[in-house]
Specification:
mainly beta, 2 domains, eleven-stranded antiparallel beta sheet
């Protein structure tokens, strides 16, 4: 433990009779708070007096106005639990599809399972009273881009299948899979263009649309809808439609050479849809029947994602699989998509409480987590934001810290690109631990929004120079 006395006048800490009104934390104070209030008033009235002598005639306790302390922490990497990706489907915008071969974190694949629903029930495609007169021009699955991660200059291999079973109701986790039919509706290798406008040459004008991926599916899927008007006209609810006719699509990416990329698709966009283009008889005009992927029917879940991970580096496996907690003192790892998190143990607050001269008040407590610059890569950037949670009595329990209620700007977690570090303000949490309101539960570090992005970070452990550390500034009396 390193202590640095700081006696600058501007570091005087104002106190209030109700410690919960203090925005910088909860305080464990007795007459100590009254002493500080008195001294603060005298200070502004008597700036020419020596700081250490102010109020000596009023009280019998001198004050050390500020102490800076750096405390060691411990940390190690764990395998992350599966995450409920149906939460993303119902609330978020991004669904993930792709394959990344990360030299540190290993191989990760993301697949999408989604329903495709007609605009109304019952339904039939116009002209299908005589199905043989209809000819299919194309079947196009469109997915609106919402961003990307990784090397988008490398090729991606995508396949599309029809589901052979329905998507489960309720919450579906990222390790779940649903059976699909063996026939491949689409297979192609392409270079992603998540930032390019898509334009169409029409008969009268050219249409420009935001960036989206267009996959041409086998015409047999269109014939399924065209050739069965008697069946489709019999559906009055979506459960029989899903169970008996069409359960949805499985969209998956396969491994290719290079680093690869993870593509983010906004399946809530009107551009995310399935379109059947066809002609009736000898008519030269193309008709279109459109079905939506977005949840326009106010049902809670219509899709989910599956994440699959293999072959992490030995640095990660030593900690996450082999249980080498000492390795985490050198570096730790976090990765989204239910891959890896880090467990952080704070020191016992009594470590510095017992070393003080009496009751203390924490002014600030900051957990600083620097990026390990030895693992920076151009095509696999460092995570933009991390999130810090606390554990509970049971394994697998996670709760927000009290400080998080102060908002992202106060709580922290965003990458400081100049210093290449993450900082969390845990002042209130640590004060509650000191007061015995909370046990000193482990903290858990994760990538923020890990269901909606493919981000990751390699971080300096506590034993590294300028590594992970807990910096505390507190006020204590001098006997």
């Amino acid at each position: 433990m390193i202590k640095i006395d700081n006696l600058k006048p501007q570091d005087i800490l104002k106190k209030f009779s109700n410690p919960r009104l203090v925005s910088r934390g909860f305080f464990r104070l007795k007459r100590f708070s009254i002493v500080l209030a008195v001294l603060s008033g005298i200070f502004f009235l008597s700036c020419n007096k020596e700081l250490d002598t102010i109020g000596i005639d009023l009280i019998d306790t001198k004050l050390r106005l500020s102490v800076d302390t750096i405390l060691p922490v411990s940390a190690f990497t764990q395998i992350e639990d599966s995450v409920p990706t149906t939460v993303t489907a119902s609330l978020g915008n991004n669904s993930l599809l792709g394959f990344i071969n990360d030299p540190v974190f290993g191989k990760t694949k993301a697949s999408i399972y989604t329903e495709i629903l007609p605009p109304t029930l019952p339904f039939s495609i116009a002209g299908t009273n005589e199905p043989n007169t209809l000819s299919v021009d194309s079947v196009v699955l469109s997915l609106a881009y919402g961003g990307s991660f990784g090397d988008i200059t490398s090729e991606m291999l995508v396949r599309v299948y029809e589901l052979d079973d329905t998507i489960p109701a309720g919450t579906v986790y990222s390790n779940r899979q649903v059976a699909h039919k063996p026939f491949v509706l689409h297979e192609s290798t392409f270079v992603p263009l998540p930032n390019d406008t898509v334009f169409f040459y029409g008969e009268k004008d050219t249409t420009f649309l935001p960036a989206h991926l267009r996959l041409n599916l086998d015409h047999s899927l269109a014939r399924k809808f065209i050739d069965n008007p008697n069946l489709t006209l019999g559906f009055t609810s979506y459960d029989p439609y899903r169970l008996e006719f069409f359960s949805g699509l499985h969209i998956t990416a396969e491994e290719t050479s290079g680093t690869g990329a993870m593509l983010y698709f906004n399946l809530r966009s009107p551009l995310s849809r399935l379109q059947i283009f066809y002609k009736i008889g000898a008519d030269t005009i193309t008709q279109v029947f459109e079905m939506s992927i977005r949840d326009q029917f106010a049902r809670k879940y219509t899709r989910f994602e599956n994440f699959d991970h293999q072959f992490a580096s030995s640095d990660i496996l030593d900690q996450a699989v082999n249980g080498d907690t000492l390795a985490g003192m050198e570096r730790i790892f976090v990765q989204s998509m239910s891959n890896f998190r880090s467990r952080i143990l704070l020191p016992d607050p009594q470590t510095f409480i017992n070393d003080s001269k009496g009751d203390i008040a924490i002014n600030t407590a900051r957990l600083i987590i620097p990026v390990d610059a030895d693992f920076l890569q151009d095509t696999l950037p460092v995570a933009n934001r991390l999130v810090l949670l606390r554990g509970g009595e049971e394994d697998g329990e996670f709760f927000s810290l009290q400080d998080q209620a102060g908002g992202a700007l106060y709580f922290g977690g965003a990458l400081n690109k100049e210093k290449m570090e993450y900082v969390f303000n845990i002042t209130q949490h640590l004060q509650m631990v000191m007061m015995g309101v909370l046990p000193n539960y482990p903290l858990y570090l994760r990538v923020s929004g890990s269901m909606e992005n493919a981000e990751r970070a390699v971080l300096k452990g506590p034993l590294r120079e300028n590594g992970m550390r807990l910096e505390i500034r507190y006020t204590e009396p001098v006997q």
